[in-house]
Amino acid sequence: MRVTEFLSLLKGVKPCGDGWQAYCPSHDDQRRSLHVSEGEDGRILAYCHAGCSVNNICQALRIELKDLFPQKPKVYEGGKSPVVATYDYRDANGKLLFQVCRTADKRFFQRRPDGKGCWINGLGGIKPVLYRLPEVLQAVERGETVFIPEGEKDVDNLARLGLAATTSPMGAGKWRKDYSDWLKDANVVILPDNDGPGRKHAQQVAKSLQEKAKLIKLLELPNLPEKGDVSDWLAAGGTKEELLQLVEDCPEWEPSKPARRGKTKKEEDECKTRQVSFFTIDNTLFEQICVGSNSTFLAFNTATGERKFAPFLKLEDEIIEPIKGEDVELGAVKLPSGVEEYGDTLTLLAEIEAHIHRYLDVSPNYLKFAAYYILLSWLYDRFHTLPYLRALGDTGCGKSRFLDVIGGLCYKPISASGCVTPAPIYRMLRKWQGTLVLDEADMKNSDEYNEVVTILNCGFERGRPVIRATKDNPDKVQILPVYGPKVFATRRRFRDAALEARCLTEIMEETSRDDIPPVLGKKFFDEQQKLRNKLLLFRVRNYFKIDPEAGAALNLGDIEPRLRQISEAFVSLFANEPKVLESYRQFIQAHQKELIEQRAATPTGRVVESLFNLIEYDTLETFETHETGERVLLISANDIARRIDMDYRTVGSILKGLGLRTKPVKVSGGVKRCIIYDENKLKIIKRRYILPGDDPEESEAVSKVATVSRVTVDSDKDGTDFLKEVQDPEAVTESERLFGD
């Protein structure tokens, strides 16, 4: 028994990395527990992860154990292998012309009837015709699609599904021009075998039909084994419905353009070819997709919702083609293969979150933000500014998985993890204008690090290209566009504070979850492909519906400026969807709370907490200097340092970093460097480091700061202010008791 025959007996067959998965027939299987593969000696290997024995599996399938082993070559009587299958070739009227015979040792020959009930080997003078010709002619007349695989067995298997199919006799490379006459004005789908001769044969058939058929598609079936055919694909679980969907998604076949020499400059000027992955004309979006190994454009009319495939677009003075090369084939760029329905936006977000959670361990808050960011990346070119997603951590904590799972779902992810210099990053960003996915973004080489920082610092905002002079020609200037979403991983934070502020960072740790697959397999990549197709439909449906300025008019509550800047694109994205917008509002408020809690746990947070513990409404006093009119708090770095067991110099440095200034003031015979009172700055600091309490008055404590006691302050000869006249002696006594040092 061949492995394809064994698979045909099973249910739910799906290809996996080194074989197939299926529902085990020996128990009530709900999880595709059976793994099937083929041994080097041709044996069929079947293993049930639920523990069923091979004998039980064979009994359930009503086969014997010996059927799993390759049969020994048979010695036939007379040395000839018997005929095991015959395929009748008939003329247009149904008259039998000849047979193709297949022997037990997989050889083929032709024979013709002798008119006396016997056969004569060979065709004699009979002119060959297409297999199942009468049925094919009827199908063409009815306007049905005609499938052309390579062999008669494949044709019969397709016919059993109710599909019209045909092939030519004598195998690959034997298609004759006159066969194409039978398929005039037909819609044809060619199904090549998965090998070199099969693909060459398919191209030969397509070229022969070029001037005859109404429509030609060349469909390379996914997940075929080496030398596999459509029969193998059907045996592995493929269905008629799946095949028809693949046909619908497949672009029309286009002949390769012959090389032209001696092209005049006039001809070049008249019609230039340009390769892009996305462009728009009026209400129609053209987005490059990849079906099998073929790139084409999905043309989506945003006014009518109509969609179709376009291998290229001929304009008045140029031809626009999809980007060609190995970028997609080798996985440097991942593209959708079509579009799939996703329902509404909340449903799509939930599906993205579930996918991320299934393969990656991140905090719940960041999980939701990553889903929002993926959605945003598919419409990034409608906005002016973007944040970045960053995984921070040491080796072995999941940074690469972060890039695979989250980065792989973003719009046209460009894998730059293998780049040793920034030059290819510039080229790929300019070429594809997608999402940069970069591992080890904190490169060790200082020149490379500085160049990456430049890309990231300029790439968050539209209209900020990197400008470089070429080495060979300093007078020639390069304009390098770098705007776009970016997902990257680093081992440490950036020294550049502005860049660090633009990163939405998840600190990665080694996961303790045992439900995350250690290796990303076929199931993962299939899920991502389906999600990319749904995200493409989200993009083309919403591209012109987005108002990039809508975010500025919507209120998210008391959100700090950096988060407001980050949120503007997200809010614009969801402005027309109240449910999604409310979900985002709740998320960003919870995210701000989490950020405040993280800041509060830092040394700066401890200093701020101590400062505001000293600033209490009942004991607060401010003093106004005589010379400058500045108001000061009788609180010093030393006061704060004593409360939190920290060096006062460190506290002073932190206060300076917070933007708080100090001033020396003489108090009770001594000099104290007090904090200059700045009400607005203190409000901002409190909002960033201290969570508001349930009492609304508590959250407004700083706004209640007032001059409880006014003291006239003069300057000494050395320039130090000192308390000269007390207007409220009782208050000064209280101040001396608290801050007398």
Question: In words, what does this structure look like?
Answer:
This protein folds into seven domains: 3-68, no CATH class; 77-121, no CATH class; 133-249, Dna Topoisomerase Vi A Subunit, Chain: A, domain 2 (3-Layer(aba) Sandwich); 269-321, no CATH class; 345-511, P-loop containing nucleotide triphosphate hydrolases (Rossmann fold); 561-593; 603-739, Orthogonal Bundle (Arc Repressor Mutant, subunit A), CATH 1.10.10.10. The model is unreliable at 265-269, 694-701 and 703-741 (pLDDT under 50). A hairpin with a 3-residue loop joins strand 18 and strand 19 (318-321). 33% of the residues lie in helices and 21% in strands.
Distance between the termini: 95 Å
CATH C-level class of the largest domain is Alpha Beta
Q: What is the architecture of the largest domain at the second tier of CATH?
A: 3-Layer(aba) Sandwich
Oligomer: single chain
Any idea how many domains?
A: 7
Tally of helical segments:
23
Main sheet overview: 6 strands, mixed
Shape: elongated
Rg for CA atoms: 37 Å
Could you say which structural class the secondary elements and strand pairing correspond to? alpha/beta
**How many strands appear in the DSSP assignment?**
32
- The CATH homology group name of the largest domain: P-loop containing nucleotide triphosphate hydrolases
**Spans of 5+ residues with little confidence (pLDDT < 50)?**
265-269, 694-701, 703-741
**CATH fold category name of the largest domain:** Rossmann fold
